[in-house]
Design brief:
Strand order of the largest sheet: 1-2-3-10-5-8
Shape: globular
Strand content: 25-35%
Mean pLDDT: 83
Distance between the termini: 41 Å
Number of helices: 5
Radius of gyration: 17 Å
Number of strands: 10
Structural class: alpha+beta
Order of helices and strands: HHHHHEEEEEEEEEE
Length: 208
């Protein structure tokens, strides 16, 4: 067990301890943003490492590494942690929001699926009172990206930009071509399966 894990375990019984302030968000990597956000949300909820790991179904050592910024979490792990902490997925990346924001095609904080060739890049977080987040999705043919239910009341909107894909609830996915749009409840199991190379889509998660 490394020093980082030991230090975090010593803090495990101090869920009310204030998180340390870190550097400016725009200078941090996605891993550093996730690390700071996980710790902030866990302390906000007054939960220990052990309890959050139990709720998310992951090892306590894994969560400790993620909070230290040394882990490289999959999309599935992050969603499990969001459900455990009862927060929107975007809050773990929490990018800065200047008045004018441009994200080039190859830029932005991205996370990858462990089950499919699927990458989601957070483009915009809903401001106060606006409960929606916007992502760019890039996927390749192969195993489908199967998502577990998100927070109750979540609806996802997908506009396909290139390629072809099966998208929607797990029991009723719909094949989309470029320009096609679908909205579906995301508080039930749902899927995204690329049917053609270089499939790209815009995904909006809308929360109640």
């Amino acid at each position: 067990m490394d020093a980082t894990v030991r230090q975090t375990e010593q803090e495990d019984d101090e869920p009310n301890k204030r998180p340390e302030r870190s550097g400016v968000g725009r200078d941090r990597t996605p891993q550093q943003l996730i690390a700071a956000s996980l710790r902030r949300e866990r302390l906000r909820a007054e939960l220990s490492l052990t309890e959050v790991a139990r709720r998310a179904g992951i090892a306590k050592s894994t969560l400790s590494q993620l909070e230290s910024g040394s882990g490289n979490p999959s999309l599935e792990t992050l969603w499990a942690l969001c459900l455990a902490l009862e927060v929107p997925f975007s809050r773990l990346l929490d990018p800065p929001r200047p008045q004018i924001r441009v994200i080039r095609a190859a830029e932005g904080p991205a996370v990858f699926s462990a089950e499919a060739d699927y990458r989601a890049t957070l483009l915009a977080v809903g401001a106060a009172g606006v409960r929606r987040d916007i992502y760019r999705v890039a996927a390749e043919p192969g195993p489908r990206r199967a998502s577990q239910p998100h927070l109750p009341g979540t609806v996802e909107h997908v506009l396909l930009g290139a390629g072809r894909a099966l998208v929607g609830t797990a029991d009723e996915p719909v094949e989309l071509a470029p320009g096609d749009y679908i909205a579906y409840p995301a508080d039930v199991p749902h899927v995204f399966e690329a049917l053609a190379p270089a499939t790209v889509a815009t995904l909006i998660s809308e929360y109640l």
